[in-house]
Amino acid sequence: SSSSSSSSASSSSSAVARAAASVQPLDVGVVDGSASPLLPLGSFSRWAVEGGKRAVRLLTKATSLTKAAAISLTSLDEDNLSTLAKEVEKLNQVDQPEKTTKPAVSVKSFLKDVSHDEELLRRFRYLSSMSEQAYYTRTLTEGDVRRRYKLRLVATSEEYKEAARAALELGECVEDVFQAGDGMCQSPKQEEERISRARDEMEEELDLEEMYKSLSFEEKAYELGITTEAAAAEGVEEPSSSSSDLAEADNVGVVGRALDTAKGFTTFVSGYTKSFNLSKKSKGQESVEAEGQGATKAKSPDNDPCEWFVCDSRADEPASNLSTKGRPTRYISLQGSDSLDHWVTNLSFDPVDFEGKDLNVKIHAGIYNAAEKLMAQLQFAVEEHIEAHGKEARFVFTGHSLGGAIASCLVMMLVHRGVVDKAMVEGVYTYGCPAFVCENCSCECCEGENCECTGDNVKLLERLGLSPSVFNHLCMHRDIVPKAFACDYTLVKSIMSKMDQFKNHGCLKGSREKNYTPALYRHVGDVYFVQPSTEYLQFARPEGDSPLLPEGQGIWKMVEPPQSLKLAMKTMNRVSRSLQNEWAFGDMDLYTYASDMNHAIIEIFNNPHPIETLKDKAAYGHEGGVSRFHKPKNYTRAVGVLLMDNASTNKM
User: Fold this and answer.
1) pLDDT tens, 64-114?
2) Beta strands at 437-439 and 361-364: parallel, antiparallel or unpaired
3) Which H or E run includes 164?
4) Which of 342, 477, 599, 630 is labelled catalytic?
């Protein structure tokens, strides 16, 4: 590199020397036809101008030479300086990014700013924190729930699994554990087993036979649960009067010791968890299990779709009811993707019929299967709450990522199957939830035509009798999980549409008239977008704000604008189309405004497209954008900072 630099420098210096040599010598002024050693003022001015011009030309050539030297190390002379300068300009033009000809679609008319709705923000933050706690069910305690949420912990998935293991060991159905009591207590058979084991452990510590021999006749009758006459008839020996007086003091001591021991052991037993630990098996049990291991494995439950916990509002804490107006509310929080099994569920995205064909919708197969498994676990907790409170019972479901999708699916299943009345569902709140439902195409449309079955899932909610406001999906502006199945699938549409499972998939067909790009699924209910503060939250700074959302932090609900405004926007879109046809802009659609709310949601999901995000190597890892914008804690922080900012603004 040093030799190249020296050769380049020598070439530059020689060129500069030749350029300097080309400057004409100074002309001597002529006065009265004779040469004069002094220059008159006019001649000096002309000399200065000419010299300045030559200096400018010299600097220009030197600058071009420097640019050319950075590209080519060949020898340069004055003849090819201009040629190389042109090449440098061409290279500079290549480095410039190409300007896109497609303008961004405006979605601002479909954004309702709810950043100052204090009640809504508190509810979002409250339930976001609760969905985050579902990741820590192993360490969750009643004190944590009472301190954080002012609720009473009812059950967790960890307790359920312990009860399920105990039920399998006793040969019972897992459902029996829930049907007896509050959904987490032991069945009668388990209770008998627990008492039997407690007696066995007590007998190991105490010689009860020796203690029994020392009891008085009346005490023996009491222990047997019969009268003294019946005891005599059964042959219970009555001690002689001489010996009873002598042993009376000792008997009191023995009985006292037995009672004290029994009380202590009762306290020990009562400290056991709701599902008794049956990890220590008897020799008989071990031999039976050794003979029939296959049968035992067949009884084992499938992998849990996700962790969960259930808690109730408290009558002494009105704040724990949120907006349920004091009604007894049961909160069910579901965990999101946290293991390989969960991601297998996410990737099992083949569409299947949801609840038969009467609802005419397709649903994400993995999410539907997971909801079916959770239905078996949680249905008894739901029925118990309804049995206790009747029509006043209320339910709130929340979940992050996969947990949010399962919660939404579970609610629709409970309502459709008649387990829960639609009026009892107070709300479903999800965070970073993937889309998972699509209308089944029932029209006779052909490829390339506008399918009337694509779009949102309003028809599904109408069939179930549920309002869209029941489902509230909060999506971070750059979270790719909500986009994953709802973004543009045009690149693979031709391939997927040939598969049997996607032939009648309405979302994949799209609609050119409505500007719905082909996708796999849509969200059901209301969609919100949150843009975190780049001033207070470090995780939001690298990528900045969304290109389609207003600048700065905020939460926006996607809504339909007034009809008059929609009419004006459609008129502008028609003008754009006519200009496109007149000036022959090709097949590119030039729309200034989104055609409707669903089109606006699609545009936000596609800008940036998940593929663009995944192209960046920095998007991966713990500190990558994929993780930062999907973490449940960051959802809670984004809403929390917005609440804090509103509070500080109100004080001013």
Assistant:
1) 555 555 544 444 455 555 665 666 565 555 444 444 444 478 999 999 999
2) antiparallel
3) helix 157-169
4) 630
For residue 324, which phi and psi values (nearest 5 degrees)?
-85, 10
CA–CA gap between residue 558 and residue 107 (Å, rounded): 9
Burial class of residue 568, CB neighbours in 10 A (0-12, 13-18, 19+): middle
Q: 334's torsion region: left (phi>0), alpha (psi -120 to 50) or beta? A: beta
Is residue 385 annotated as a catalytic residue, yes or no?
no
| pLDDT for residue 489 | 93
Residue 639's identity, in one-letter code, is V
Q: How many residues does the chain have?
A: 652
pLDDT at position 561 over 90: yes
Cα(371)–Cα(300) distance, rounded to whole angstroms?
18
Residue 486: which of 310, 609, 362 has the closest Cα? 609
State the residue for tokens 């052991």. 265
Distances (CA, A) of 142 to 139, 312, 393: 10, 11, 22
Active site residue 587: no
**b/e string for 84-123 if b means 16 or more Cβ within 10 A?**
bbeebeeeeeeeeeeeeeeeebbbebbbeebbeeeebbbb
To the query of whether residue 479 is one of the catalytic residues in this protein, the response is yes
Helix (H, G, I), strand (E, B) or coil at 498: coil
78: amino acid identity, one letter? E
Catalytic residue among 115, 401, 408, 595: 401
Task: Give me the half-sphere count of Cα atoms (radius 13 Å) on the Cβ side of residue 499.
Answer: 11
For residue 365, what are the CA distances in angstroms to 247, 345, 439, 463? 76, 8, 14, 21
Pick the catalytic residue from 479, 488, 596, 645: 479
Cβ contacts of residue 76 below 8 Å, gap of 6+? 11, 12, 15, 65, 68, 69, 84
Sheet holding 471-476, edge to edge: 111-113, 554-558, 526-531, 471-476, 425-431, 394-400, 329-334, 308-313, 151-156
Query: Is pLDDT larger for residue 27 or for residue 353?
Result: 353
- 114 close to 639: Cβ distance less than 8 angstroms: no
- Residue 553 one-letter amino acid: Q
